[in-house]
Task: structure prediction
Amino acid sequence: MDPLLFVFVFVLLGTVVLLAVIVGLFMRRRAKMQGRLAQVTGGVMPVEGGDYKTRINDAVSKTDRGSSIARDLARADLRLTAGEYVMLKIIAAAGMSLVGGWLAIQFAGRMSFPVFLAGALVGAVVGSFFPNIYVGVRSKRRIKAFNAQLADTVAMLASSIRSGYSLLQAMELIARESTPPVATEFRRLVQEVGLGISNDVALQNLYRRVPSDDLDLMITAINIQHEVGGNLSQILESIAHTIRERVRIKGEITTLTAQGRASAWVITGLPIGLAFMMTTINPGYMAPIFTFGLPPTAWCCLPVTAAAMVAIGYVAIMKIVNIDI
Result:
């Protein structure tokens, strides 16, 4: 079989599968609101025989990886199920496999199925991590925004308790008056308590969604006060002062280490940018680096080694400038 024809058929089938998955993903949902509520109240969610998305979600959710995915999606505040997230990873891998195969052929300078297959495999692996990167970045930004609001939130909680509100009423006030992400998380907490979950479990679920050291300090203080008693408003005021001081010191450290982080980005981006620029200007000059073959002509190890060394340098610099308080 002609290799060019084989590549064309492979690309055509990949495109058809990709479009089919996208169309199926954006079809009108068959699951009703009762199915969503059943996951919280413990009811049984009806499963339709033809609803493949429901079967995929059930199969993924029953695994340990599925619970980890659900936790990560909750931290990022994404309204997706574990099954939908897995399908997005498959779509990203399929799309990047085509891009990787095309780039491999361009770099190699010739139409070859092994080159296309190697590029497609690398592209599929890289593409499968795109949803993870997006969820991780979104989670970090959300946790950072939550920590920035937490000092004022704890102070508002202490003031509300001092004025005569109960702990749950004070949290409900924060859910109404604050801004996201604090308002969103405290609203979930109040809803969980309204569904019959105890305060301790609801607070632990809040910490599981927002893994913050400052939030852990607040939750620990509330749990200890619930067991041994004491003036909760005064304790929360002390915690709010501690959180403000920690945020101030972190800001000073971030300012002092800005040069080191900038150096890490420059050292990482400069060789990559130069490689792309030189490849665009003079592809023949960079082509031998991406030549596939057996030693001593296996120059493909050069970009792999260079990428590994750049990554090691970036990680080393970021470890140096990352100071925990």
The CA atoms of residues 198 and 254 lie 38 Å apart. Confidence is low (pLDDT under 50) at residues 26-50. The chain has three domains: 3-27+48-128, 140-239, 258-321. The two ends are 63 Å apart (CA to CA).
